[in-house]
Amino acid sequence: MSATAAELSLFSCQTCSLVARPAPAAAPLYCPRCGARLHLRKPDSARRTWALLIAAYLLYIPANVLPIMQTDSLFKARDDTIMSGIVYLWTSGSWPIALLVFFASIVTPLLKLLILSMLQWSVQRRWHWQPRQRVRLYRLVLFFGRWSMLDIYVVTALVALMQTPTLAMVSAGPAAAAFGAVVVLTMLATHTFDPRSIWNSARPHE
Amino acid sequence: MLDSPLIACCECDLLQRVIAVPRHTAARCRRCDAVLYRNTDGGLDRALALSIAAIALFVIGNLFPIAGIEVRGEYAEMTLIGAVQTLYVQQELLVATLVLATVIAAPTFELIALCYILLPLHFGRPPRHLPFAFRILQRVREWSLVDVFLLGMLVTLIKLKPIVDVVPGVALWALGGAMLLLAAIASTIDVRELWARADSLR
């Protein structure tokens, strides 16, 4: 047996994992066990994924150019972008943390966007190339995607803690919202992308 | 064909026969190596116990201060909801909503859905709105980012340490515990086992 469920016109329920062949009469199909809508593939996957990815690419620019955090202390005011915050961490001696933030806020979001674009592109061009490796890349994105939210929480914590007029008043900058949106959009894109389509053009035993 | 011995891989759709696997092991897809299902050996009851413990820790994590700082005799501390409030006051609506949704709302719904599903199952009754509750659980789980938030707190505290005196609060440890429990729960619930149990009670 080496066929996909879709090839045998069987529907696999994404909620309860039941493999079923529902009555073909009704137009929207529902799972006989749990009542969830059934689709052979995620509906409108390509268009939704591209829309989310393009929006994320656009917001990636203000997220990195504009200040993410503003510090007002007694003597001076200071604006920090994501990158300048990392440089500050590096020069103040905590380079492991600087590296961590660098990977979470600069490398991961960009890599995620590039990998998802490549995957979606490869699916539409019906590449035969290494489906197993491509699925592995997808799993990587799925696993690491959430960790790019790190900087948002760092800003949140700094804003919440540093409200001491004698030392410093910290507030979030315009890049915080943009960066948060980038992370949310890419997480959504990860879920609208259908990994099963990677195998569409691959032969069964690859 | 209500109880089919077939399973389709959720990542490549390859149709495969369900076979018994040894305790605490997972069956993986022949073609793409994705986890198909696990034998968790009564994992549902264990998940219920963990969920109840996680609720207790999560409540503490939300009510008590996460961390405090001390500068020249001045003391300031933050709670989770206080942090959201500060962002809200600063007109950072999007960031405030994001933090509220991912660190407070998502784990809350996750834990409520878990108890709603697992408690009746434990006492031998099928939950009334199981499909709805299960879909909530699936949707909400990926947005529950307590672990990422805790790493963010850690980075912040290390960042502030050279400048001010940092005092970690009770909620920091409580949230840490809740995070570990949530991860353990995710790996002890098997979708197939859950629906098979619910089916057998109907």
List keywords for this structure.
heterodimer, A: 206 residues, alpha+beta, four-stranded antiparallel sheet, two-stranded antiparallel sheet, 6 helices, 6 strands, 51% helix, elongated, B: 202 residues, three-stranded antiparallel sheet, two-stranded antiparallel ribbon, 7 helices, 13% strand
Write a structural description.
The complex is a heterodimer of chains A (206) and B (202). With 206 residues, chain A is an alpha+beta fold. Chain A is 51% helix and 10% strand. Chain A has helices at 45-65, 82-91, 95-124, 131-144, 150-161, 174-192, and strands at residues 11-12, 19-20, 69-73, 77-80, 163-164, 168-172. Chain A has a 4-stranded antiparallel sheet. In chain A, strands 1-2 form a two-stranded antiparallel sheet. Chain A is elongated. Chain B is an alpha+beta fold. Chain B is built from 7 helices and 7 strands, in the order E-E-E-E-H-E-E-H-H-H-H-E-H-H. In chain B, helix 1 runs antiparallel to helix 6 and helix 5 runs antiparallel to helix 6 (170-188). Chain B starts with 5 loop residues before the first strand and ends with a helix. Chains A and B meet through strand 2, helix 3, helix 4, helix 5 and strand 5 of A and strand 1, strand 2, strand 5, strand 6 and helix 2 of B.
| Biggest sheet layout of chain B | 3 strands, antiparallel
**What is the C-alpha radius of gyration of chain A, as a whole number of Å?**
22 Å
Low-confidence parts of chain A: none
The overall average pLDDT of chain A, rounded, is 88
- Secondary-structure content class of chain B: alpha+beta
Biggest sheet record of chain A = 4 strands, antiparallel
